[in-house]
Amino acid sequence: DYASSPGNPYQDGEAEAQAVELNALVSSLSRGPVTPGDGIDYMNRDLIMRACDESGRLLHPSRPALNVDATFGRRAFGSSVPGPEGEVWSTWTTVHHSSWGYLFSALLQEDYTVTTLSEARRHFEANIIGRTGAS
């Protein structure tokens, strides 16, 4: 997807931003700053409101999304080590003593299967189930 901001003084013609939904999701999952960067008349309210509640409070996970551990073995040693060729992140959110795990993937160059024995699952179990005593 592309978003355009006609009249952008820093580029000839129309400026187009690529992958606006992906960028919005990554900003939210990272727990970093989230801010619209479009001109006032070109903001996408529906997309902006996916990152916050009606009062404007940012929605984000309890911890920043991080690459699953298998990513680093693959990047360090290449295809001889199992792991995603692309981005696979995990995180969780806890609200009122209930927790949800999230798995994010993008730019995968090949299929990657996340199983119950994956780093994402172990990460979630160690940090949520072990910490809260939930089962």
Helix content: 25-40%
Class of secondary structure makeup: alpha+beta
Approximate strand percentage = 15-25%
Radius of gyration: 18 Å
Distance between the termini: 40 Å
The overall strand count is 5
Question: Which regions have little confidence, pLDDT < 50, spanning 5+ residues?
Answer: none
Characterize the main sheet.
3 strands, antiparallel
What is the average of the pLDDT values? 77
Number of helices: 4
Task: Label the overall shape.
Answer: flat
- Widest sheet: strand ordering: 3-4-5
Strand/helix succession? EEHHEHEEH
Could you give the topology of this structure?
Layout: E1 2-5, E2 15-18, H1 20-29, H2 45-49, E3 66-67, H3 70-77, E4 87-95, E5 98-106, H4 119-132
Antiparallel strand pairs: 1-2, 3-4, 4-5
